[in-house]
Amino acid sequence: MKPHRPTLGIRTERLRGGWQHGVKLLHVHNGRLTAALCPTRGMGIIGACCDGVRLGWDSPVREIVHPRHVDLARNGGTGWLDGFNEFIVRCGLQNIGRPGWDDGPAGDKTFLTLHGRIANQPARAVKVRRFGEGANRRLFVSGRVQEPTATGGRLELTTEFSCRAGARAFTLRDTILNPGSKPEEFSVLYHVNLGVPLLGRGARFLAPISSAAPINPTASRRMRALADYDNPRTGRPEEVFALRLLGDRNAKTVVALVDPTGTRAVSLAFSLRELSCMTLWKQLGGPGERYVTGLEPGTNYPQHRSLERRQGRMRTLAPGNAHRIRIDCRVHLGASAIRRLQRRIAALQARAKPQVQTARIFFTDDSFHEHIRA
After folding, report:
1. What's the confidence (pLDDT) of residue 140?
2. Beta bridge partners of 38
3. Where are the beta strands (DSSP E) in 165-304?
4. What fold characterizes domain 9-372?
5. Whose CA, among 179, 260, 296, 356, lies 20 to 30 Å from 319?
6. pLDDT of 106
7. Residue from 171, 253, 191, 201 nearest 46 by CA
């Protein structure tokens, strides 16, 4: 057998026709893992594949929709869904929750759209860099995404994707900056979406849970089965869970989805100081519907901003200040690799017994959750 010689490379593609006409993709290859980054759509990751394991899902939105065709205010502020099909999409930076009017801390009234605007803003200053030699060779792709507002407030996201030659992993390093002259509220949520083949009956969500609570009514009836998945079923309502996680002495934590065979998994490792709230989304619909789960670390939960502010979870950046985030995404293959991952999470869970709240403690507009099931 020939020795594996990982290579680093990148290919640029410009899509033509339909709603995706003009969308730019950057296909990153490290010899084992490939990922499609989209500068046109906020530097989101459309999909990835590692050693034959697909990372992503089958969205009813088939095309990679150009933001010019996404009216965020459409249908009561839920137009964001018209372009939703990424493996990893950022929500924010002013809002990660449901749409509606909000009276900001300064008394300014703002209409918020679902999950904010950052995913539908084009990136600028996109750069590709290579460093190192041999097995230490690394590829870096960076870009800057701005989110100006008509009222003068503005936030900037600088993001960097990096991977090492031959690795089954990649790293996201994001910096959210307030370049303005006044304090700015911000929030960000990483909507990491996984479907078949990792998702299926018998798949398991792994996380070191400190506490868990339902966000929507269906979740309140499914708290005891929070970590379990089933086959697709037509008309099944979504389930949304709010989690607090346990970390090590440096506040590092990890969550994962293990496939039904117990031999493949994807994990996310991050700091609870940077992303203190974890949301688990399960939408297990039938053919033509969404069959997907979302592993979603964030600075707060995806509820109306006014509620998150009252709960003290909204963060504020002073002028010139920045909030930095690192997420490590890794693919684990083979039973022994899965056991090591399970032991790592079990060691964190050993610090405390999870507290499961079956009654809803988050007060949201139920009609919103019913609406986005469609």
Report:
1. 96
2. 44
3. 169-177, 184-194, 204-206, 209-214, 239-245, 252-258, 264-271, 277-284, 291-298
4. Beta-galactosidase; Chain A, domain 5 (2.70.98)
5. 296
6. 65
7. 191
